[in-house]
Amino acid sequence: MSTTDERVRAELVTDPAAAMSRLAGADRFGEYVIYERQGEWVFAADPMGGIELDVDELRVSWQGETTAEAWSGRPAAVLDQALGRLPLGGRNAYGWIGFEFCAWALDAVAHVPARTTLAHLMVPRIEVRIDDTGHAISGATPDEAEAILALIAEDDEAPAATPAEIRLDPTGYRDRVAEAVGEINAGRYQKVILSRKVDLPFVVDVPATYRLGRANNTPARSFLLRLGGLEAAGFSPELVVAVDDERVVTTEPLAGTRAFGRGADIDAATKAELLADPKEIVEHAISVQTSFAEIAALAEPGTAAVSDFMAVRERGSVQHLASTVRGTLADDRTAWDALEVLFPSVTASGIPKREGVDSVFRLDHDPRGLYSGAVVTVSGTGALEATLVLRAVYQTTEGAWLRAGAGIVGQSRPEREFEETCEKLSSVAPYVVKG
């Protein structure tokens, strides 16, 4: 069957998120990952190969054939080597890694249940890219390209939401926060991010939720995926790590939160409050300090630097204190090394990271999975980007849910931290579309 490589730019797409939602919702291109960054959306679909890594087994597939084997060592190195064995021919890879991926580097393997999925990457046959110059299609047959163009050009109405109830808390979140504050004040660690899960009582139309949520959020990155039995859509507030073709490694820690979108005067007042709150400043400063140390451990000496320190960035229903940390990757380090060192994000785990992650596993109770993990893209040139998975909706055959957390330090108050989770859940909960 012949394929087309349609690289001629066409008319501008006025609503890329809606076009991407239609491509996903059409359900004719197999599994997919949609990823938005810096004004470009990509729809990567119909895997020709992939890599699945769980606690016990590595499975590598290519054009219908799958091999399975036990693995040992560190998950990042295992994925790097597995990708290197595939005949990619310059193709890109897309996928996700779960929070539990960090356990091997942080001595927390005993916390991870058997058969937990750690990572799932795929190499697409079809890629559709949309940016401010138009769109491009590669890898599709002529009939598929025609269908793609029709879906991109379609003019349909935005979906209607079934807002989710977020204030119920069967997880005992306030009590868990109080327990963490006690451990912090006893000197066990400085900070931990504890989260709570909100189950949804209906099946979710995830592509439609992505479309409606993206229209009402201001993410650093956004994503929509269906891969390995998991559907998810989210509006990521920050990068975990990016390594570009010039080997510049970047992370963007966000810590310190107030509500946003409640009117200009209220937003200005809460911004001033955020910038003056000692608890929020301490939380942010220790996060940046940790991120800088991690970048410095990866980078050529003297290249690690902090920029935009403690800027305020608006992310949907909340505003955060934010900084950027960069360095030039040392010659003996790879992009996957950078991912391993910087994952999980310090703003989604804790400080020190080892003790923080241990506390997460003990006090968050159920596995996080994709929540506070990352959606990952790997270019044909080896550049890598991993965006933090927060402000998202998740769905499997067992149900659908939301999840949000807050950074707990010694000055934390359980009621305020619970309220912060509500503020973050409000980035997604009002836009959930019932399936």
UniProtKB/TrEMBL annotation:
Pfam families: Chorismate_bind (PF00425). Residues 171-424 form the Chorismate-utilising enzyme C-terminal domain. Keywords: Lyase, Magnesium, Metal-binding. One of its GO terms (molecular function) is isochorismate pyruvate lyase activity. Transmembrane segments: none annotated. InterPro entries: ADC_synthase (IPR005801), Anth_synth_I-like (IPR019999), Chorismate_C (IPR015890), Salicylate_synthase (IPR019996). This is Salicylate synthase. It comes from Nocardia jiangsuensis.
